[in-house]
Structure formats: structure tokens, C-alpha cells
Sequence to fold (549 residues):
Amino acid sequence: MKLFRGLKRSVIAFVICAVVMLNETGVLAACPVAEKQYKVQHAPKYLGVEKLDGIDVSEHQGDIDWAKVKKAGIDFAFIRIGGRGWGSSGNMYFDSNFVQNVKGALANNIQVGLYFYSQALTVEEAKAEAQRVLTYMNPQKGTDLYNQLKGGIWQYRNQITLPIVMDYEYSPSYAGRFVAGKISKEQATRNAEAFIGEIKAAGFDACVYGSACFLEDQLDVNKLYNTSAIWLAHFTDYTDYEGEYTWWQYSERGHVDGIEENVDMDIWYKKEKIDTEYHCVKTTYNGKTGWYCVREGKVVADFKGFVENEHGWWYIVNGEVDFNHTGVYKGTLGNTEGWWNVKGSKVCFSTGFAENENGWWYCINGKVDFSVSNVIKGTVNGQSGWWTVRGGKVYFDNTVAKNENGWWYCKQGKVDFSYTGIAKNQYGWWRIEGGKVNFNSNTIAKNEHGWWYLKNGKVDFSFNGIAQNENGYWYCRGGKVDFNFNGLAKGNYGWWYCRGGRVDFNFRGIVGNQYGDWYVEGGKVMFDYNGYVTVSGNTYYIRGGRVTE
Fold:
């Protein structure tokens, strides 16, 4: 928009009023050019507003390829139609490229507004400038101006949906007429009102544009805002201007495909579409700059929960991100309610273990999964290992638990791969070898409570009889080896004599039980034996292994 590009922060005023409408999808659009290429941050009050990317151009940009401009993401353009010289004579002129720029922009579905560089010192001059805009739009046929402007753009007047702008600013020289005129704030405001009145009387919209300091010092913005919108010029990625504005010119050194020269970059805040969502943005509240929860443009100081921004989801307490919260917190992300893994106040969407005051929890994609009961690898309390999880929570008990690789002995919640023995869970007592249940174990094995008979890896408490391990054959009562037992006991292959609970294969003699006295040889009752035997100097008659006399 600048007549001279050397100014870092122009002191400008415009008169603009916009026709605001939703995009075709009916959703609140972002402005990716400003946000991604230029890292622009919006003031909190405009977070929920539909936003569009735009530019403002003049003949200084040369010939423009508007198809490329549209493809680059530009949705609107303010096009200079003319201006008044800043010398003492104050001659007015038209922009040599405005007709082709208007046609090119409209042909590529880019919304168009016009601006006029003003140096008006009086109400009369302001009105004359507005009338000159209308003349340039619709030059009289048969005149040199008509030929120079190729008929103007009057046939496109109904497609000019953005305002006609009064670019009212100090000249680039302190000898310029606006500065030399030394007009007051009240006079400048009356001049702007005059321009607004003429443009509106012709059926177009208008409003005020200016730099932050110009709007504050040179114009009565509150008075103008009653009849028109404001366009702010402030070259920064975040403006601290506190007044209302509909457009923001944030850079004078933009680069857009289709334009060879630098170009002014703008954002349009289409205010009619304010949402009611919560946003997490960097702003200053009560004198402190930080990241806050904002809704409808205001910090929500009592907010507690999760809010998303372009950097992720954040856990907010008392309306502010403090970056100190680490744990598992309850809340809703989008439409998903749950308990979430938070590190440094940011939701961590990883899979693994996280802690809060209620314990350690297993999170899948950042959320506690209460349906998980498993033995899972990870780090808990700084220890890496495999952990017992039931209903999503780590249990630090001693048990036997299952995962897809088998059943495991867990000591204080963690698989103990060094353990070999017999351990208990809710289903029984199990043979553990190297931390894992051995379901192929059919033997006698030991734990701190004794030696036990195992069938398919599980202690069989119903078992009464003789069972084998690598140390011998043993008498079990209720599944447990009875080391106090001395006598005959039945096994799979007969009746056997046990001494101290163990089958004594060296024993030969007569042993009694509730059924009688029996001849035992090699530890086994000899049911096939019939005849006399002498044992310890005594002779017995045996029939079917039993002593008969």
C-alpha cells in the first residue's frame, strides 16, 4: 500500500467497511499464509473469528499473475486506484495498473477492495478525493481519461465486495503537505468522516486504516468505529494494539508467487463468525506474558482442563499453562474423554507408563486404557522391566499374570526372571521356571511352604498318592509331600513302602496298614507272591502278598 517503501511503520488512515460472509464450507477458515509462512500470532479476541489471507497492491508491484497469486493462497486484495501528491499543489492521479489488477483479481475469484492515497487537509479535499475515486471507476465516455483507463471498472462495481479505502497518511517527507498543514486530530477525523460519507452515498463500503500510533494519536477511532471498521497497520508477527480492527496489515515485505516485487500482507478477520471454543494462545494477562486459555477473545482465568493449539494439547490450570504439570490427568480432548499422560503440561501421545497420585497407569496413544490386563514391558519408577497391569493400572503385588507370551511370576509387580519355584495367583499355585509358568511340568517341586505335586504345571491339591521327581518317588497327601509319613501308600504301579515320605526301594520286610500286614520287597508290596518268607528271623506265610499266619 505504501507510496514509499522506506517507511518502517506508516502513519496511515483508511475508511473501510466490509461485507462479511462464510466460506462455502460453512467452517471457520484459518489463514495459512500468515500463520505458517510468517508465523503470525493472532490477538486472543480474534482466535474464534474466520480469517482470510490477503494483500494490497499498486503499480509498484508491476504486472501481476493473478492465477499464481490465487494458487498461493491469497483470498482478497486491496488495489490502489489512485492518490493525491504530497507536494503543496496536491495534484491527484490514478494508478496506471488498477484496471488490469481489478480484472485479474476478480477473474481468479479473489475478493477486491480499492484504496486511495489521501493527503486531504480539509473536508472539501477529502470529499473531492472520494469523488475522484468514483470518477476513476466510471470515467466519462469520449474523454482522454476514459481512454487512459480503458473504460474504467464500473461494470464490475457489484463485484467490489470489499471497501473503498482512504489511505490517509503522513507523507514520506516532513516537508509534505499533510505535515506542513498541521491539522488537528479533530480535523483529520472530520476529513475521514467526509470521505466515508461520500463513498457510502455512492453505495460502497468504507472504513479507516492506520498504523497503531496513527490510530491512537491522529484520529478519534472510537467516533469513526461507530460508522465504519478499522484496518490496522503494524509490521510484526503479534500486535499489541488494543483497539478493534477488521483487517491487519502485518508486513510490507511479503513474497507471493505471481508478484516479483515485495508486497504488503494482510489478514481479514470476518468478525460475524465468532466461535465458542477454548483456545491456547500466548498473550499478556494481568501484566504476565504466557500461554493462556482464551474463549471469545477473553482469558478464562478459572479454566481447568485441556486445550489445543498448533503445538499440541495442553493441560491448563487456573487459565494458564505453567509447563510444570507432569502426570496423568482427567479431561476431554476434542470429543474424547479420559485420563491423559501429561509431561511438562503437554499431552504426550506415546504408549507406555505414566504416574499420578493414584498410581502408575498404562497409556495407549497418551490415554489410560482401562481395558488392558496384561504383562507389559516399560519403565516404572525408573526401573525397566515387564509389569503387571490390571484394568490399566500397575499392581505391585506378587502374583502370576498372563500376556501373549505366557504366564509369568511377578514380584512386586515386575516379572522376576530369576525366580524358579511355585507361586500363587487367583487360579492356583503354579510351577515357575525362569519367571515363567511351565505347563509341561508334572513333577514334585518346592516352594517356601514345602514340596508339591504338579500336574500340567499346577499344584493338584486333590492328589493323594505317589509322584516322582528327579530326587525319587514321594508320598503326597492333598498335593503336598508328607515327610512324616512312614508306611504303605498306593501309586500308579502298586503299593509302596515310604520312609520319611519317600519310597524306599531298598526295603524288604513286613509292613502293616489298615488292611493287614504285607510282604514288601524292593519297596513294593508283592501281590504276586505266595509262600513262606523269613524276615528278621521270623517266618511268615504269604498269600497274594499278604501275611496269613
About this structure: Residues 185-201 form the longest helix (17 residues). Residues 2-29 have pLDDT under 50 and may be disordered.
